[in-house]
Amino acid sequence: MKPHSSTGNRFTQFFGYLIVCNSQGNILGISENFSSITTGSLQGLLSTSVFEFFKKQLKLSAKALLAIEAIFLERSDKKILQQELFGIKHYLHIFRHEHRIYFEWEAKEKSYTKNFQMDTISFLLQEKTKSIWSEICTSIRNIIKFDRILLFKMEDSGIGKMLAECTAPNQESFLGKQFSEDFMPLEAINFYHTSPFRYSPNIHKQNVKLLATEEDIDIFPCQSSTLPELHIKYLKSIRVVSVIIIPIVIDGKFWGMLIGHCYKEKIIDFQKRQLCAFILQHAVNKYEGRLKQNLLEYHDKIKDIELDLKGKLLSTQSINCVLVQNMETLCKVPEADGLAIFHGGDIFTHGHCPNHEQIEEIVQIVNSTNKKPVFKDSNFTYTRGKSINPPLPFAGLLALEIANRNDYYVLWFREESISQIYQIKPNKDRNLLTASEETFRNSAKPWNDNDLYFVNRLSKLLHETIVSNSKEQEKFNEELIKLNNELEILTFTLSHDLKNPLAIIKLGTQIIHKSFGEEAVEKQKWTRNILDGIQSMETIIDGLIHLIHSKSYKFSKGPVPMVHMIRQITDEAKLLYNCKRTNIQFGKLLPIWGEKSLVYQVFLNVIGNAIKYSSIHESPVIKITSNQENGYINYEIEDNGVGIPGESLKNIFNVFTRATNTSKFPGSGVGLSLVKRIVEKLGGQIFVNSRVDNGTKVTLCFPYSGDIPTSIYTD
């Protein structure tokens, strides 16, 4: 979208003269103020040769005509000349814009060469300055003698802030004032961005009409182009008469602008305006150099943090463990007020965060609205969080989805930043605007490029770790397949090799059985054969046991989130045993230090038993809770089911053993035996307390590791 001046694209300011022609040199437009310095009808000049007009009426020099010819021949796109126009020295700006050529004159001021002290811009030569923007405001004001010079910075959110200021004595201060995004619409940004400076010596003077043969002549590239109507109205409302605006562009992006206000008409010579733009550009270059240096230092800092995290990730199988262990650092780098890790329903927090129920709702909102791994919203509470109760204790949210899993997030929170922001509103006089200060809430400091850089680097690191772990798991699976093949061969071998000793035992036993009348020597011979056969079987079995021990399953332990797992198991068990009416009461569900698949097997059996054996109760109730005590995480699963008789309780962990009152329920008697073996393999213990018709309570005790912070258990 191209911006146009406040009064349309058919008017210029009073201080300039403008001619627009096509590439053939025919005049398409001429400013009406030429009538005061030329003879004849301006309308009659339209569509005629611009060269004829220059030679006969303006009497341009041969040097100027050659420069103009170079523009037409496309040897040059822009020229600035000094030419006399009816006895007065003027600057002549000649430039090409799209398929048209523009000629713009403005008078040259006699005093433009007035000397100024070198110390006015000496700060540009210094290695370090405390406030480069304050010093640039002071320097520009010393050159152009305006009443006020301001430095305006526009944030990514569109809100602008006055960062620096230099004013004449007894003038109102604008320092620190913030203006809403309405103050700088895209049209205005484009208008200022496309010129080295914009200037009006008197915004109250009547503009000059452009007589034209075509409606679409665009004069916004011209020096005399009028300012956006929005800004003219606002400047009039604060009694400003003369204004200069110099844009600040960093990395090709509109960053802000230097603004000069004067309460009386003030003409600034073109060269002096160029000087101001030149000084500002040098200051911007210096500032940009600082930004790049700061960025390098920031990237070095991120690299150090990344290397530290990478080392920890390589030394453990648990990504979640490393994230929880480094929550303080992860929170501090993007300057967040709080951080949460959401992992399969388990939540770990650091700093100022919402409660766990709110975090679960936030994750649901992010999942439903975001299609990318990184989500950011500096106004999350205002735009999306109104439905969450009670009110959220933060305003801005930054979220990272880990490994494309919608149940695994790192969440950063920023608290509300209460701001006084000026809103631009129409005055009673419709030709004016006023800025009224209003209080804005539910907004946080915006997440910037550095924040996103850190989060994206973290995302990449975690992705690489997950891929690496997946490759290790794939390698383990290949070894497991190989082991299974070896066991298959072993099974075949055993089935073949055991036949011979078994045949001998069988035959010997048959002979003994039939030869009670024979000599004792003969009986001893067959007895020896039986013993030899048994010995052969023992040797084979011992070899099998040794092989199984040498090829035993190896696993690594880490923190296992339990909230999501236990809720999933209870939902599945209620469906399996057709007992949807079961009331599941959850307490605190702490993570366990173990191996996820083994832990899953333990709770699948124990919770499944609790739901199964209480299903005949009219109102089945299952209570699941955990606590931390004496170096263990203790889980209690209690039901109000049939219970276990005392005579069966002592044998409950034996394989194929079932309680005497469970014949009505399906089962093999293997579950609790398997649970006991797994729990002991994880270094834990299991206890069962029960009374017939009063239910059963199973207590599972898992040791927790000192390798991870206590907060992962106690949060």
**What is the rounded Rg?**
42 Å
Give the overall average pLDDT: 83
Structural class: alpha+beta
Gross morphology is elongated
How would you describe this protein?
The chain contains 19 helices and 27 strands. The protein is of the alpha+beta class. It is elongated and about 150 Å long. It has an 8-stranded mixed beta sheet, sandwiched between helices. A 7-stranded antiparallel beta sheet has the order 1-11-3-2-6-5-4. Strand 26 and strand 27 (695-703) form a beta hairpin. Helix 7 (270-314) packs parallel to helix 12, helix 15 (563-576) packs across helix 16 and helix 16 (596-613) runs antiparallel to helix 18 (671-681).
Structural key phrases:
single chain, 715 residues, alpha+beta, eight-stranded mixed sheet, seven-stranded antiparallel sheet, 19 helices, 27 strands, 24% strand
Itemize the secondary structure elements and their pairings.
Layout: E1 11-12, E2 16-22, E3 27-31, H1 42-45, H2 50-58, H3 62-72, E4 78-85, E5 88-97, E6 100-107, H4 132-144, E7 148-154, E8 160-167, E9 178-179, H5 186-193, E10 198-200, E11 208-212, H6 229-237, E12 242-250, E13 253-262, H7 270-314, H8 319-325, H9 327-332, E14 338-343, E15 346-351, H10 356-369, E16 374-377, H11 380-383, E17 396-401, E18 408-414, E19 419-426, E20 433-440, H12 449-497, H13 499-514, H14 520-550, E21 558-560, H15 563-576, E22 583-586, E23 592-594, H16 596-613, E24 621-629, E25 632-639, H17 646-649, H18 671-681, E26 685-691, E27 695-703, H19 711-714
Parallel strand pairs: 9-19, 22-24
Antiparallel strand pairs: 1-11, 2-3, 2-6, 3-11, 4-5, 5-6, 7-8, 7-13, 8-9, 10-12, 12-13, 14-15, 14-18, 16-17, 17-18, 19-20, 21-23, 24-25, 25-27, 26-27
Helix pairs in contact: 4-7, 7-12, 13-14, 15-16, 16-18
